[in-house]
Amino acid sequence: MRMRNVFLLLVSLFVAQGAFAQNSRQNTLQVLKNYADSIKILRHRLDSIQQENDSLRKKVEADGRYYRLFAPTTFYRSGVNKSLSMNPESGDEVTDAVDAAMIDLYLRRPDLVKDTESHLDRVGSVREDVNHEVKQTVELVDQVEPLPDEPEVVPVGIVVTKPNFWQFKFDGYLQFMQNYVSGNWYKGGESNYSAVSAVTLELNYNDKDKYLFENKLEMKLGFQTSRSDTVHKFKTNNDLLRLTSKLDMRAYHKWYYSLQLLAVTQFAKGFKANDDFVYSDFFSPFDLNIGLGMEYKVKALNGRLTGTLNFLPLTYNLRYVGRSALFDANGTKGKHALHEFGSQFTGDIKWTIIDQIIWKSRLYAYTSYRRALIEWENQIEFKVTKYISANLFLYPRFDDAAIRDDNSGYWQFMEYSSLGLSYSF
């Protein structure tokens, strides 16, 4: 009895398991079928949407009557003409509806109207060439050439040029002039018409850092003739031989420690009209001045005003007179040589007022605290052309070691103006 019950139980379990497996297989097949059906339905929907989009695109491309409703708000004349005309020409149903909608928009929201049909006409119609697809033609290379192997470091030949700190300058002119000389001018001379030549040479060293070595040689020589002079056929009216050398060492900014040497004399004998007396000669007088102090470099007015101011509180001065007859006129106290110590100031300025007018000024002042010498040379140059210029020269001078004049005292003065050839580089 018990065996039978066990057998029936096993048969029931086997039948139930078979029924469960069959139901599971049927459920799985149903799920797969439902998934496949959903894929077909989704694909059908996508195809329908694509067809609808294509049809809408075709409709939009084929019918441009709706363009005015979706484009930026513009004032069109067609709707207004229909509204104001006594016998309006009616178009198709869509065009009339769009015109009515635009008129309603103009009346309700005129602030939205940003453009007009007249402006569009001036701008032009829509370009058709921009609707074509632009295709770029690309040429392909079958094989790329390999890049040559280059060393990472390429040797480069370097040429080092030694800087040239020396600079040479030349300035010269030959001119005719009219001049005035006071009766007590210490070198003699006479007021009349004459000619003068001048040459200025400069050789300067500048290391652009600390040291300056400047050398200037000035040479002037002029001759004059006078009908009133029956003794001399020619006389000098302008005679100068001057050497200025300075050794400067930078102290601060535009200030330099300065050692200056100044040597001054003349070339030829100096006479007065109808007088055989020699008022000046080579080394009669001769001044040698050595000073130690400070120098200031002037540069202003955008470089148009340049020059130097030289302050030399420690100065040795030697005055030598070769002709004994000129001892008293040059204050050597009956001797050929006079040695003095004193102080000196030299200002040398060049001002380019305009490109055609240049003012050159030199102020020299020396005192031994027993006598004083002041010279102020002013040359105003007018450049007519590159090779033609005119000069006005003004030269006041004070020397209390000379013989006092009854009218002018210790003051002396010379002036001349000239016109002629000039050249510089």
Strands, total number: 14
- What gap, in angstroms, lies between the N and C termini? 147 Å
Low-pLDDT parts are: none
Helix content: 10-25%
Secondary-structure content class: alpha+beta
Kindly report the average pLDDT value.
Answer: 81
How do the helices and strands follow one another from N- to C-terminus?
Answer: HHEHHEHEEEEEEEEEEEE
What composes the largest sheet?
Answer: 12 strands, antiparallel, barrel
Question: What's the Cα radius of gyration?
Answer: 55 Å
User: Order of strands across the biggest sheet?
Assistant: 3-4-5-6-7-8-9-10-11-12-13-14
Beta-strand portion reads: 35-45%
Overall shape: it is elongated
Number of helices: 5
Verbal overview:
- The chain has helices spanning 2-62, 67-70, 77-84, 93-108, 117-123, and strands spanning 74-75, 115-116, 166-181, 192-206, 211-224, 235-252, 255-265, 286-300, 305-320, 337-354, 357-367, 372-383, 388-399, 411-424.
- It has a 12-stranded antiparallel beta barrel with strand order 3-4-5-6-7-8-9-10-11-12-13-14.
- It is an alpha+beta fold and 425 residues long.
Topology:
Layout: H1 2-62, H2 67-70, E1 74-75, H3 77-84, H4 93-108, E2 115-116, H5 117-123, E3 166-181, E4 192-206, E5 211-224, E6 235-252, E7 255-265, E8 286-300, E9 305-320, E10 337-354, E11 357-367, E12 372-383, E13 388-399, E14 411-424
Parallel strand pairs: 1-2
Antiparallel strand pairs: 3-4, 3-14, 4-5, 5-6, 6-7, 7-8, 8-9, 9-10, 10-11, 11-12, 12-13, 13-14
